[in-house]
Amino acid sequence: MTRTERWKRLRAIGVAVCLILSACAAEDAAETDAARAEAAAAEAAAEAAQAAAAAAEAEATQARAEAELAAARAAEDEAAVAAAAAALAEAQAATEVAQDAAEAAQAQVQAARAETQVAQAEAAAALAVAEEAAAAAGVDLDDVVISTPSLVVQADYARAPYVAPAHAAGLLAFGGYLYRYLPGGEYVPDLATDFPEFSEDGLTMTVTLRDGLVYSDGTPVVAQDAVVTLQRATDEGPFGAQMASFESAEAVDDRTIVYTLNEPFSCLNNQIVCSENMPLHPHEQVLADPEGYFAEPVSATQYVVSDWVPGSPTMVLEANPNYWAGEAVIKKLTLASATDPISRLLQVTTGAAAMGFDIPASVRADLPDDVIQIVHPIGGTFWFVIRSDVEGPLGDVRVRKALCLAMDRGAINDRAFLGTAEPGSSILSRYRAEWDYLDIVPLERDVEGARALLAEAGYADGFSTSLQTVGARPGWTDAATVLAENWADIGVTAEVRPLEDAIIVDNIINRAYDAMWFGSGGPNFATLRTLFYPDNFWSDSVAFADDAVTAAFDELAEAMPRGDTEASQRLQTEVQRLALAVGANYCPMGERAVLVGSRLSPDILAMIPASQNIWVATEAR
């Protein structure tokens, strides 16, 4: 089963009620089909232009051959006449072939444009049906609220923290993006006309901006904006390590950006780098007053921030009329953070919010019929973590492996997450596109094997420890409780301690924990670096460093940017197997998914697969 098939299966399971049952399947694909048709038409037009140029060149060659033949005849040079006549015949044949190719290419353009018109009409019809359904459900598209677990602390991509909530809000309203995501997860050009063109050695990457782009305040979008973005992202930003492939950028003109690379690089394999990590902002405004600008950033994407104080629980966005692709269907969108999952649940069940992100799975059977249920994998995994440098039994790698063998993944999935956390034994999600999923540590529970390892380490009679987790996350305390029961079967007593988010983060940074239930998400490269590479957030916290793992990751850092999928697959597997065997600091449980409740059709408002990002439909221009 492919990733796409797995995603579609999971989404089908998660959607309990569709606002319009008869039209749901057709609606869900309409926007993607229209975008694909438009891309195909653009590609056909480019090919037609090349064919027309080739035909013009062939006609010019024919004209030169005719002139040479006339000159040879005037000189009465029989040999030259014969050679020129042969050249002319060859040129005439080439012209005929080129003209036929140009006509065929133009016909393909017409066909592609017709397909685009049909797809756009279907998308518009599907959207109209979805809008009618929203109105019937009592949802006002002029004022939509989304209830989220976390607030947006700040909007500057070159400052920490700039994590999931900022990414999600950024894609909606902060600056502009060269590339964007469709609701099915497809990655397509946005402000860029196409994907980058590369030099023969792969070390120069050229991106062309669309013509006539402007920000929400009317400032033109220019190539120099991208140059300043790269400088700030690499010199000051929290994603410096992810930007290591980039040496510099130059604005050749207002629409052309030329990136100089340290190594071959692919935006398709590093989507977050070419989008979230490099948003375009008006460079003069940013350089003049970064702090002031990012308190009220302008936009070249769907929305513009209309009411927000950095760090406040509410951000109000309004549709950006200057967005090149069309105005958002939802005219006013409020991101309202509520750390308590019950509050998010109440907001969506009462209709105060059109969508509630990460609501308790325990309420699935009791949700109102008009709330669509979506089980949404965020492209991450659940795991428990133990420090290498903790004193006592947990400091022994054999004990850490024993605790991993004792974990019952199926019980945690069933009891804590009600079937939404698909069991797995890899740190990397099966829903990320960068790696073909493999089980890394033993998937099945092995109580006898766990007891044998404890006895070998000198702890046959067991021991006691604490197990921290984030109390506000739905299912996390339940998962830690089930895990503690699993450990009790091998004589280990664990006290579950649910704590607030801020306290957990401080404890991770200060190594003020022994064992913890947690989870990760995001691109595979970033995940592996954070967990296993020296001087990173989690590797520092668990005191993990291993030369063989570091060497394998360094190879991965070379293979992934150049698009070497075979080497990338092998090395992502090797990094995990080595690190989990040598340190056993993390024990993966399964897929990290969240339950989303929505009162809007996914043709209006949807979650982008394997992420925590939001997609909103636009009105076709």
Write the layout of secondary structure elements.
Layout (H helix, E strand, L loop, with lengths): L2 H12 L9 H51 L3 H59 L7 E5 L15 H10 L5 E3 L5 E3 L7 E2 L5 E5 L14 H13 L10 E8 L2 E6 L9 H4 L8 H6 L1 H6 L7 E5 L6 E6 L12 E6 L3 H10 L4 E5 L12 E15 L10 H10 L2 H8 L30 H10 L6 E8 L5 H13 L3 E8 L1 H10 L4 E7 L2 H9 L4 H6 L4 H13 L5 H18 L3 E13 L6 E3 L6 E3 L5
Helix pairs in contact: 2-3, 10-12, 11-13, 15-17, 15-18, 17-18
Helix content: 40-55%
Mean pLDDT: 86
Radius of gyration: 28 Å
Total of helices: 18
Ends apart, CA distance between termini: 38 Å
Unreliable segments (pLDDT under 50, ≥5 consecutive)? 1-29
The structure class reads alpha+beta
Topology, number of strands: 18
Described by the principal axes of the CA atoms, the overall outline is globular
Strand content: 15-25%
Task: Strand order, main sheet: write it out.
Answer: 8-9-10-1-11-16-12-15-13-14
User: Largest sheet, described in full?
Assistant: 10 strands, mixed
Task: Describe what this molecule looks like in 3D.
- With 621 residues, the protein is an alpha+beta fold.
- The protein contains 18 helices and 18 strands.
- A ten-stranded mixed β-sheet has the order 8-9-10-1-11-16-12-15-13-14, with helices on both faces.
- Helix 2 packs antiparallel against helix 3 and helix 17 (547-559) runs antiparallel to helix 18.
- The model is unreliable at 1-29 (pLDDT under 50).
